[in-house]
């Protein structure tokens, strides 16, 4: 990653702090992770050798509840990247008003070079190394780039061995057999769907508005299917191999079947277009669901949609954001539009802690309700302070964390004075 994500996160916090007139000591608290751990992660390679790689776990804020955030296995993972991502997680959980703080973890490793047994050895070793800092009441990891259900199952199992008792609420994103929640797989798509429907209604877009989706993976593919079923016309989709277009609306079931059979959407029977032209297609709604930084200044000038819902994390660059704002294109930012996953992660943790199993319908209804309320909160802050939605989201999230910090420190001071 070329941009310093931590600096970027702090810059956004500062802008919100200025808008809120925040006290310096609260701002300083937000600038620094509450706790930060760097560990050695030794694991056994298949040739019998022991290898050691660096690992991290950062809890940026636990003011609103236990820290929550993913675990990334990637060669680009650094202490500062993890700190930046943890900071943004604090804002994300606060924007959707979960009783959680923000955290993130990772290992600097290329998992594609590892066998299944090496990956398991690595994941279990990492869990042992950070075991003293995580827990259902402390800091709760989840999947992120290059990690998924089986990694979380290994982490939950290793944590149970270390602590001597099963505590499934220590991680989320587990298989349902290991205590995972129904509806977790499609949670990000379902959350973004609610954002699209509610925002389209608010903006008085037609019921069969045209949608373009960049990225046809875990987030993009189920979202395309959901929106098509809702009556929207999904006129363009893409993946890493290329983009397709049909102004009448693509048959998303058939596109998904083609991708499953042949590896890409480009084999579907539709007009093949250049990937850069996808973002400039004539449509009302654009959903970037692939890459960070996908929409830069040049793309922003060409966007024809009236609404952008950021299913991906950080898909719009700062320069592009300013252009979209000038062009009066509404952007629902990632901290809300991609928050479905962390919301259902929270539901998983709550089910584990209460020893409950919620039905898929109950999970879906609660997710929809949470997204709708959060979106209403966001529009209200934007209107009251005359802000764009991205700035409003930072003000909303940072304001909630700051309130929790003030309350906590206030109590500390009161206790000190009483003693
Ligand atoms: P994924 O790997 O399942 O899918 C990514 C998709 O993007 C794939 O279809 C891939 O082919 C496509 N893609 C890659 N490069 C592309 C390019 N240059 N042009 C067009 N398409 C391209 O990943 P995902 O889980 O769907 O995540 C996508 C984004 O959503 C990421 O930014 C991620 O951080 C964010 N997100 C995902 C979740 C989740 O629960 N899956 C939650 C929050 C945020």
Describe it.
The protein has 419 residues and is of the alpha/beta class. It folds into 2 domains: 155 residues, Rossmann fold; 146 residues, NAD(P)-binding Rossmann-like Domain (Rossmann fold), CATH 3.40.50. The protein is 48% helix and 17% strand. It has 15 helices and 12 strands. The strands form 2 sheets. Strands 9-8-7-6-10-11-12 form a 7-stranded mixed beta sheet, sandwiched between helices. A 5-stranded mixed beta sheet has the order 1-2-4-3-5. Helix 6 packs across helix 14. The protein is globular and about 60 Å long. The termini are far apart. It binds nicotinamide-adenine-dinucleotide. Nicotinamide-adenine-dinucleotide binds next to strand 7.
């Amino acid at each position: 990653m070329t941009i310093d994500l931590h600096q970027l996160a702090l810059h956004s916090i500062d802008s919100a702090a200025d808008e809120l007139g925040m006290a310096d000591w609260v701002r300083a608290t937000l600038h620094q992770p509450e706790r930060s751990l760097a560990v050695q992660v030794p694991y056994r390679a298949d040739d019998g050798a022991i290898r050691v790689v660096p690992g991290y776990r950062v809890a940026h804020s636990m003011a609103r509840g236990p820290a929550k955030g993913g675990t990334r296995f990637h060669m680009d993972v650094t202490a500062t990247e993890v700190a930046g991502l943890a900071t943004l997680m604090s804002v994300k959980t606060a924007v959707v008003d979960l009783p959680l703080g923000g955290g993130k973890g990772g290992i600097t490793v290329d998992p594609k070079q590892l066998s299944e047994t090496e990956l398991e050895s690595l994941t279990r070793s990492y869990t042992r190394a950070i075991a003293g800092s995580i827990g259902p009441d402390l800091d709760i990891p989840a999947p992120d780039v290059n990690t998924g259900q089986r990694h979380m199952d290994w982490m939950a199992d290793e944590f149970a061995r270390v602590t001597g008792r099963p505590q499934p609420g220590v991680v989320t994103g587990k298989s349902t057999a290991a205590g995972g929640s129904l509806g977790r797989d499609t949670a990000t798509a379902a959350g973004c769907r609610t954002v699209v429907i509610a925002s389209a209604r608010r903006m008085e877009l037609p019921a069969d508005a045209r949608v373009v989706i960049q990225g046809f993976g875990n987030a993009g593919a189920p979202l395309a299917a959901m929106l098509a079923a809702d009556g929207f016309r999904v006129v363009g989709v893409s993946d890493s191999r290329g983009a397709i277009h049909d102004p009448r609306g693509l048959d998303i079931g058939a596109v998904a079947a083609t991708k499953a059979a042949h590896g890409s959407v480009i084999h579907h029977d539709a007009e093949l277009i250049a990937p850069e032209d996808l973002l400039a297609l004539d449509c009302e709604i654009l959903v970037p669901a692939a890459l960070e930084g996908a929409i830069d200044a040049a793309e922003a000038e060409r966007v024809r949609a009236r609404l952008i819902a950021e299913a991906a994390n950080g898909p719009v660059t700062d320069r592009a954001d300013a252009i979209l704002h000038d062009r009066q294109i509404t952007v629902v930012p990632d901290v809300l539009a991609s928050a479905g996953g962390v919301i259902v992660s929270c539901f998983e943790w709550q089910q584990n802690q209460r020893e409950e199993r919620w039905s898929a319908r109950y999970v879906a209804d609660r997710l929809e309700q949470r997204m709708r309320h959060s979106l209403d909160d966001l529009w209200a802050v934007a209107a009251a302070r005359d802000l764009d939605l991205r700035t409003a989201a930072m003000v909303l999230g940072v304001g909630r964390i700051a309130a929790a910090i003030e309350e906590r420190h206030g109590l500390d001071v009161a206790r000190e004075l009483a003693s």
